[in-house]
Design a protein that fits this description.
16 helices; F-box_dom; F-box domain-containing protein; F-box-like_dom_sf; 14 strands
Length: about 450
């Protein structure tokens, strides 16, 4: 039997064709030609075209209820008439090929100008309700696995809209496994009070028994806190918010998320910026939160945690996440470690995460001071006795690491150290270096 490209496994053939289709020299009309080669090529092209659905919601604040215009990024270089018409035609195609959609991205952006010559007469539609839009969309995606909601505009979505949007996502996408929320959150006592009022209208008993509830495996929270001031107060008279002012979204998560959804989460990313911790160490409790674990986010199956250590994020984490959630974590990834000194990092690991076996540190030696690897010896011997592997994104060489750790520690504790270059496709803003070093312990 002669070996041809059609004899390759579907997974490998999909990777090859994805690379070809992603090429800039590959024009859209060529996709139709490739799909007409055979049935296998057609099915693979369909998977490529409809596996990811990226939707832009252009905000139109001049309309009531902060309405949005729906477009797709792939048509951003076209005229406004063609962009709107093609977006809605493509959305209908996504609905008809809904079983292929695995990733859905919703991102709000500044409203685009709708003026044109001649006046626009195409299928222009205004979305006054994002939850209703999701209700008309997500049920057509029975195999949806990943969903990302991004709203980082200076004026965020209204509180009731965001609450209803999240609950709609959880109740209309039963196959959803990974949810990412990247949001700008207003912080004030007024927004907290308003959120509590809207949370009272959420169903509690019926939602828990809903068979369509999503059972998540991972949750990513990337929140930027913005103080909310009354419009009648001049800018020069505005007082910075108190660090004890509650954060309405974090306080609302235990109510918004059903316990059935939270009980299956094994991975959590907790990143909060814009918070200044209190200067007084005794003033650690945020007003509006409770030391009772039942009022905090409880993730009983949590195994992996990604935690930022900037802008007081470690101070917020125990305020809003129950200790029942992270006492059994086996893997911990700490971002932007250069903001912490060793004396601050070690107590954090000792008091909160004594059972971790794998630790990843990012951006640890990208500032003026080089990394002193001797802290690993103290970290292993005195703090984390169960630690088996440390991965650090660093430019330090293996001889430098070995010399800093010392021959005694290397002989008694370290199994091996290896250094590898991070592939370009895997590099992110949080890496801090093109290299990563992995230290494996013998016991």
């Amino acid at each position: 039997m002669s070996l041809t490209i059609t004899n390759l496994p579907t997974e490998l053939l999909l990777q090859i064709l994805t690379q070809v289709l992603s090429s800039r020299s590959f024009k859209p009309r060529d996709v139709a030609r490739l799909a007409s080669v055979c049935r296998r090529f057609y099915s693979i092209v369909v998977k490529y075209l409809y596996s990811n659905c990226d939707i832009l919601l252009h905000r139109r604040e001049i309309h009531p209820d902060v309405a949005h215009v729906v477009t797709l990024p792939r048509f951003s270089n076209e005229t406004i008439n063609d962009m709107l018409a093609n977006a809605w035609r493509t959305l209908e195609a996504y609905r008809s090929h809904g079983r292929e959609v695995k990733f859905l991205s919703l991102k709000t952006t500044r409203g685009t100008s709708l003026t044109s010559t001649p006046p626009y007469k195409g299928p222009y539609k205004l979305i006054n309700s994002i939850p209703n839009f999701l209700t008309s969309l997500t049920p057509h995606f029975p195999t949806l696995k990943n969903l990302s909601l991004t709203d980082t505009l200076q004026t965020p979505l209204p509180i009731p809209t965001l609450i209803t949007t999240i609950t709609t996502i959880l109740t209309t996408s039963p196959s959803l496994k990974h949810l990412s929320l990247s949001l700008t959150t207003l912080r004030s006592q007024e927004t907290f009070t308003e959120s509590q009022y809207h949370l009272q209208s959420l169903p509690s008993s019926t939602s828990q028994n809903n068979t369509n509830l999503a059972c998540l495996e991972s949750l990513c929270l990337d929140l930027h806190l913005t103080p909310a001031y009354p419009t009648d107060i001049p800018r020069w008279r505005r007082i910075p918010p108190s660090p004890t002012t509650p954060i309405w979204l974090l306080s609302s998560l235990p109510t918004i998320f059903p316990s059935k959804t939270l009980s299956t989460i094994t991975s959590l990313s907790f990143i909060v910026t814009g918070h200044t911790p209190p200067r007084n160490p005794q003033q650690t409790t945020i007003i509006g939160t409770s030391t009772n674990n039942s009022s905090k986010l409880t993730l009983p199956a949590l195994e992996s945690l990604t935690l930022s250590v900037t802008e007081g994020c470690p101070h917020l984490f125990p305020q809003y996440v129950s200790q029942l959630s992270y006492k059994a974590i086996s893997h911990l990834e700490i971002l932007e470690t250069y903001e912490l000194n060793i004396e601050t990092l070690l107590p954090l690991l000792k008091t909160s995460f004594p059972t971790i076996t794998s630790l990843t540190l990012k951006k640890i030696d990208t500032r003026r001071k080089p990394l002193n690897w001797r802290f690993l010896a103290y970290l292993k011997s005195s703090i984390l006795e169960h630690l088996k592997k440390i991965t650090i994104y660093t430019s330090a060489t293996v001889p430098k690491i070995t010399n800093d750790l010392g021959t005694v520690f290397m002989g008694n504790t370290v199994l091996r150290i290896f250094r590898e270059r991070i592939p370009l496709v895997e590099r992110t803003m949080d890496d801090g270096s093109a290299w990563r070093a992995v230290v494996e312990f013998a016991y």
